[in-house]
């Protein structure tokens, strides 16, 4: 606290020009990411690259956790 007041974030451009909220953009980006990771995971297993498939499966799981967290935070607000 500075001077007895908390610093608060204020976006002066909020609601102008059809700006997409940050959590919505992050959610869409995560959905695109999990789709691409999952498809690359399937392709890796089809090509016999098991190590890449396992790595991409782990990334897909982490992205699913991110989607759940962002959806929770978006619903909470």
How would you characterize this protein structure?
This protein is mainly α and 77 residues long. It has one domain. It contains two helices and no strands. It has helices spanning 22-46, 50-76. The two termini are 24 Å apart. The model has no long low-confidence stretch (mean pLDDT 83).
Provide the descriptors you would attach to this structure in a database record.
77 residues; mainly alpha; 2 helices
The oligomeric state of the chains shown is single chain
Compute the separation of the termini in Å.
24 Å
The level of helicity is 55-70%
Category from helices, strands and their pairing: mainly alpha
Q: Please give the radius of gyration in angstroms.
A: 19 Å
Number of domains: 1
* Residues in β-strands, percent: under 5%
Q: Quick one: biggest sheet? A: none
List how many beta strands DSSP finds.
0
Count the helices. How many? 2
SSE string, helices as H and strands as E:
HH
Low-confidence segments, given as residue ranges, are: none
Mean pLDDT comes to 83
The best one-word shape is: elongated
